[in-house]
Fold this sequence. Notes:
A: alpha/beta; four-stranded antiparallel beta sheet; B: mainly alpha; ABC transporter involved in vitamin B12 uptake, BtuC; 2 domains; 16 helices; 2 strands; globular; sugar transport (chain B)
Amino acid sequence: MTPVLELRGIDKSFGPVQVLHDVALTVRAGEVTALVGDNGAGKSTLVKCVGGIHPIDSGEYLFEGKPVQVHSPRDAAALGIEIVYQDLALCDNLDIVQNMFLGRENKRGIVLDEDTMEEMAARTLASLSVKTVKSIRQHVSSLSGGQRQTVAIAKAVLWNSKVVILDEPTAALGVAQTAQVLELVRRLADQGLAVVLISHNMNDVFAVSDRIAALYLGRMAAQVKTSDVTHSQVVELITSGRSGDLGLTNGVPA
Amino acid sequence: MTATIEQKPEAPSITSNVRGYAERVRGGDMGALPAVLGLIVLCTVFAIMRPSFFTAVNFANLFTQGAAVTVIAMGLVFVLLLGEIDLSAGFASGVCAAVLAILLAEQGQPWYVAVLAAIATGTVIGTVLGVLVAKLGIPSFVVTLAAFLGFQGLVLVLVEGGTNISVRDETILAISNNNLSPVLSWGLLAAGVGGYAAIQLLRARKRTKRGLIADPMSLIAIRVGALAVLGGLAVYALNLERSRNAALVSLKGVPAVVPIIIVLLVIWTFVLRRTAFGRHLYAVGGNAEAARRAGINVDRMKISAFVICSSMAAIGGIIAASRASSVDPNTGGSNVLLYAVGAAVIGGTSLFGGKGRVLDAVLGGAVVAVIENGMGLMGYGSDIKFIVTGSVLLLAASVDALSRKRAAATGLR
């Protein structure tokens, strides 16, 4: 099966600093791909390149097997790529429905079509089996951290997106809420979406991911099946870029 | 998938609505409650201290006294929604009023040309302010403080150093001085209440049909009933003969500024609540970065808010010119701006952005007008009036800040 998203040989520099060296990444539908790496390994830069916030210097960007040009967040959204950033980008003073449709409101003439938006939002949340919010007309300010994460994710999947990228969705959450969000992440993949999960937490990575992509100092150290590796192997990949015969030899992919 | 979002934890009823409201108030979201309570307390106090406060003449006066400030405050709500401020709105209204007076008195233009020119002047002023704030990134406080001084000078230039220009055009004078006939007044009320009821009922029926939660009939009945009773009392009082010598000249009916304010209120409420533009204003005020990422042009929203604010200030200036029958260097000056900002904030619009309604400006404007009027009747001079109004503004801002703190603590905002 053709991967939904495939990157080959991506280079990216900011001035004299080269942040990404010849990075390859494959993301498949129906799978959770965990993107791991130490601070400064280039995870955020890679994600921003995928999302069209940073243009890539060189390399191939394939979407559903076809080469595409992504120059802006709008291009990425048009392809069906949605990114949920760590700060979630929700408006506290708006309710759940208003946030989910922000910037893409349904209208009849010049009037907002609130009823249709409410129905669509309710359907999306129901399809994600979200049961923790009391009313979808609640202001986001009254939601817990986990609920906010849920709303942000629901906002991303509302648009028939194909790839959802989550930037450390559980970083600020408690135990129970983390479990809820991870369950939701798994469900997204089971519904056929391609999910990229950026995380520092090995427990989360092993709990939900199908594949692990480890970045080390701007290079893709290895992309492996989660079932083929152990906890400590992944930690080694993150911290030294290699683990046994996996990973980089002399700084170059094996 | 059979799981559904738990949308209906309880059947919507009056009790659940009242409970929801009480929860919001306790959580710090007071909305218009302080303004309404303040209005009741102030009216009671003044009515006891000065029986002349509670007369039909004075009631009608309140509307014409408060109209200009209320309209300027309505415009300010848009700027405050974004967390910005426009300190120049008062003198902007003065500049626009001067443009109106010059065109009428010195150029002999018809009233509609003068009115359009005044509003266009406001639009230009708003565009300049908005561009300076949004594109250059100067804090709005500084831009409009500079404009506050600059426009004060500009009014002096326009009215040529301190003389005043009389406004004699009958249409303009009618705005603040004429009344609707009693029959028309009742008709206006009937249309207003009927229209409000129709909108509420239609929305409830449409939502029920689609299986969404609708406001219960009883709540709609209470809202419409309250509007009908309050409006009915007001129209009844305003339809009483106010003239001291009714045989010579009759003075009764709803002041002509009232329908103007109602129309502005309905239009801007529609824009804020029912259009994408309004939704985006709230979004920018709530979280500008989130709005930007959602593809909203934040700069354009800021410029639009300043344009609306200054254009509304122009309308306020026209009303002020009509009331004074003239424009002088002090039109829109002294306490007008303070009163307008006070009106918006007292009504419940937040100085921190993201929260506010156009109705707030009307309720707050009523409070300001009652204070101004009542203190005048008590015989206090400008000294005490300034101190009291300043204190009320500070009090309103404190309520705003405290309710924000409380909301942050309870997680409701």
